[in-house]
Design brief:
By secondary structure, the chain is mainly α. Helix content is 73%, strand content 0%. Helix 4 (41-52) packs across helix 6 (87-129) and helix 5 crosses helix 6 (87-129).
């Protein structure tokens, strides 16, 4: 319940990412959302992301870009070579993370609201049965 309250308050713990013991690539992020019952994360965020991103994107853009960032992070972390990273790529990556974060937050909030609504209806039905 503490996690639900934190999510409802718009708070996210970066420790949640470290608890997976893996990089936050698309599969890891999908797994985190599946764990809280949000099964189709990438489909759920597609429309909202497209409205916020400055150019048209493919359906797999968010997953692909997140995987690209995780792979780039691994390359730097394990080789200490960062020559493959150019300034324009960094700027786009920062914007991507910002838009993705905002969009994921909206999807999670809507999912949380839906769960709370269902829980409220279940509670009301249980009280009515008493």
């Amino acid at each position: 319940m503490a996690i639900a309250r934190a999510i409802g308050a718009g708070w996210f713990s970066v420790r949640a990412l470290s608890s997976t013991k893996s990089n936050p690539n698309s599969e890891t992020v999908s797994g985190m959302f599946r764990a809280v019952g949000c099964i189709n994360l990438w489909e759920a965020l597609q429309t909202e992301f497209e409205q916020r991103w400055p150019v048209a994107v493919t359906k797999s853009f968010c997953r692909d870009k997140l995987d690209e960032l995780a792979a780039s992070r691994n390359r730097v972390a394990h080789t200490a070579i960062s020559i493959h990273i150019v300034r324009s790529s960094l700027i786009e990556s920062v914007e991507f993370i910002s838009v993705l974060g905002d969009t994921v937050s909206l999807v999670l909030s809507a999912h949380f609201d839906s769960c709370m609504q269902i829980a409220g209806k279940s509670r009301d039905a249980a009280v009515a049965d008493e």
